[in-house]
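quick q for whoever's on today - can somebody do inverse folding on this one?? i tried earlier but teh output was garbage lol. tokens:
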């Protein structure tokens, strides 16, 4: 699905870019004095895009404005869907596990994420953990966010996470490596009074 979406994205971007380039270039060329073809909308540099008669042609028709608004709403929704699909980072659905027999097995990505969260929560001083797997099936990567208690040394928590949770996940899934991007944040708390 991701490859299809990426292909559709590239084709749409290419077509929209070519269309805008052709229209903008032709309007610019005609505006600068180039001769316009007989089928073109503009006939010269002083021609307008829509004449007064063309702009008011459908004003009295009852169906005109609802159709225009519906078409613009559909275009807006499609553009927003496209933007969300492009910007959203997808979760890895499954991880390919090398079983040694040449076939391999498939591990659900959410199951591996849940195990990583459980092990990260066991690290001393971790208040809350969240994990998201990204990358490809055969070469996953992890994005880990840890919320640390105020008294915890971040270096110790990071070391515990990498030597325990991430190492266990890597060895149990039979992965050569499991790169991780780890974000550490401290729990907000009131300042302590010193007397």
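ok took a stab at it. sequence:
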């Amino acid at each position: 699905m991701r490859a299809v979406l990426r292909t559709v994205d590239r084709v749409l971007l290419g077509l929209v870019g070519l269309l805008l380039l052709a229209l903008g270039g032709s309007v610019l060329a005609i505006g600068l004095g180039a001769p316009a073809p007989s089928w073109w909308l503009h006939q010269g540099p002083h021609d307008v895009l829509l004449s007064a008669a063309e702009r008011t042609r459908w004003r009295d028709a009852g169906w005109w404005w609802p159709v225009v608004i519906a078409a613009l709403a559909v275009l807006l929704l499609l553009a927003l869907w496209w933007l969300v699909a492009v910007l959203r980072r997808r979760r890895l659905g499954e991880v390919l596990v090398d079983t040694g027999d040449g076939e391999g097995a498939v591990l659900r990505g959410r199951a591996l994420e849940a195990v990583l969260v459980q092990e990260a929560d066991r690290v001393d001083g971790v208040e809350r953990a969240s994990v998201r797997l990204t990358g490809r099936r055969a070469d996953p990567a992890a994005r880990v966010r840890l919320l640390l208690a105020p008294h915890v040394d971040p270096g110790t928590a990071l070391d515990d996470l990498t030597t325990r949770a991430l190492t266990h996940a890597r060895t149990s899934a039979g992965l050569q490596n499991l790169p991780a991007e780890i974000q550490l944040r401290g729990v907000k708390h009131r300042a302590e009074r010193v007397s």
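fwiw Residues 2-87 form one domain. also The first strand starts at residue 94 and ends at 97. so keep that in mind when u check it
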